[in-house]
Design the sequence.
């Protein structure tokens, strides 16, 4: 009988749900992977606990909620996706080097195993928690370059929520006023609260209508729109957050900027003045996605993570504790 893993995203049609669906699509292992959203899991956890070998609340907040509900952790793995869940909403370079709170570490140690897709987060937690780095991407068969046409102005795009942690996004602080101030720039938006798109085909068309995608966040775990834009062959200008330094080679396939008004404005002005470089940069960032952020290559990191957690559980059941951070 195949061993079974229940993947538990927080909500439908949001980043973790897309991550979970990609894992199922590209899974080639003997593991059976299923999805259940946290609200349903919390109501019926005993049924799922008895049915599955592993329970995987992907969102740290969901994992903490399960602890409060008294749900056993002997089958539980979880992931660290962001800084703001544990860093009092203050995380920013170089703030991400701070030691996580003891309560967070203590609660994470109750899980069988923890993963993260962000190297910065791995470096922070590896000293304290049994954590595996599993890279994360989007579906390159869904997000790809198409119908690229030359825009008269430089079209800069942003996608996200203005009410979910609005103080960290930098939209009103940087993106909107800077784009309005610089001639030759058109700002194109996909805002959750105004025109929320759940159809990835429509999101692909949105990204492909852009010349460049911008992220001005103070803290992020990924962020997903950055990798979706990159997959569509759209260069990215971003602050140094999440996986950005793993994806963007500054000045080659995108730009990494300091998080202040003058730095962001200056870089956008340079882009406008040299917009002919953008198509080639777009090809380079798409190639980076194909070479290093492709589910065909990355899926084994995740299934190995699940298999390792299953073996850990078997060993712990036999009262043989294995703890080797360098096993991967």
Sequence:
């Amino acid at each position: 009988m195949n061993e079974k893993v229940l993947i538990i995203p927080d909500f439908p049609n949001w980043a973790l749900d897309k991550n979970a669906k990609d894992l199922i699509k590209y899974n080639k292992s003997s593991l059976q992977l299923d999805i259940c959203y946290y609200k349903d899991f919390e109501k019926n956890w005993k049924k799922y606990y008895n049915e599955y070998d592993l329970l995987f609340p992907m969102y740290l907040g969901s994992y903490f909620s399960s602890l409060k509900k008294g749900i056993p952790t002997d089958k539980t793995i979880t992931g660290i996706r962001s800084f703001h869940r544990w860093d009092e909403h203050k995380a920013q370079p170089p703030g991400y080097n701070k030691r996580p709170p003891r309560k967070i570490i203590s609660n994470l140690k109750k899980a069988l195993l923890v993963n993260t897709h962000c190297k910065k987060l791995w470096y922070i937690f590896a000293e304290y928690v049994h954590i595996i780095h599993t890279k994360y991407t989007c579906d390159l068969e869904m997000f790809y370059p198409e119908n690229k046409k030359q825009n008269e102005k430089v079209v800069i795009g942003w996608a996200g929520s203005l009410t979910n942690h609005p103080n960290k996004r930098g939209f009103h602080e940087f993106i909107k006023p800077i784009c309005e101030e610089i001639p030759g720039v058109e700002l194109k938006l996909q805002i959750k609260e105004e025109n929320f798109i759940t159809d990835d085909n429509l999101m692909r068309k949105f990204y492909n209508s852009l010349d460049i995608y911008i992220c001005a966040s103070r803290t992020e775990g990924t962020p997903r729109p950055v990798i979706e834009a990159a997959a569509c062959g759209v260069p990215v200008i971003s602050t140094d957050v999440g996986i950005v330094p793993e994806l963007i080679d500054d000045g080659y396939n995108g730009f990494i900027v300091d998080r202040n008004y003058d730095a962001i404005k200056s870089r956008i002005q340079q882009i406008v003045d040299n917009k002919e470089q953008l198509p080639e940069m777009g090809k380079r960032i798409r190639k980076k996605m194909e070479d290093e952020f492709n589910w065909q290559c990355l899926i084994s990191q995740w299934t190995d993570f699940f298999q390792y957690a299953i073996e850990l559980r078997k060993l712990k059941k036999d009262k043989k504790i294995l703890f080797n951070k360098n096993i991967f």
About this structure: The chain has two domains: 4-137+294-327, 154-292. Residues 187 and 316 are 54 Å apart (CA to CA). The domain at 154-292 is CATH 3.40.50.2000 (Rossmann fold). Residues 295-317 form the longest helix (23 residues).
